[in-house]
Amino acid sequence: MSVPIRPVLVIYSHGRNPPLNPAPDLKYDIRSIPNPPKALRDTSDGRSKRIREHLLSEPKFSQKLELVEKDIRIRMDTMIAEITAKSQGIGGEEEAEAQTQTQAQAQAQITTPSNQEATHLNEEHSDTEDARRSTNEVLLRVGCNCALGHHRSVAFVCELAQRPWPRDWHVEVIHRDLEKKRSGGVRVKQKASWKDRGKRWSEHNSNHDTDMHFD
């Protein structure tokens, strides 16, 4: 009896650091796609319709979507074919084993009728195993990263999830870094630090010039 295949596609948006752990089966860097205007980024994240429409107008964005969709379909088809072949092999072995067990049980019932209870327990165990093997999940994990995981990768994953995937696929979206605070504060601190260094360097040179004496 063939085991149903359940393809599961999980797509992650995330920032560049840290990388996804465990590593995804497929990963894509979206940073080559131009960022949306700052005015849009300041008020919305990548789930925004305005940001997604802006990015869809970028040829690089649309081309990347088509490329990634193609890669996913090829990889999923390969994984399904592999697990189907494996299941068929296991199914053949199990069928032969089941036939052997049936013959042995029939012989045992002829010689010892009391083995009927043991046969019933074996059937219950077999039913439990069949329930556990009722589905074969094929899991494909795809990671899409931009700089911070707030805009480009989020919009990309949202659009990717809406591609015309086969109806029997289960598609799940995870925005890993969307709820993290924006790093604007960090950048401001970095700029302030650089400015402070420049100021101290300027003051050092000024003091050095003052201390110089010419004879």
Automatic annotation (TrEMBL):
It comes from the Eukaryota. This is Uncharacterized protein. The lineage of its organism: Eukaryota, Fungi, Dikarya, Ascomycota, Pezizomycotina.
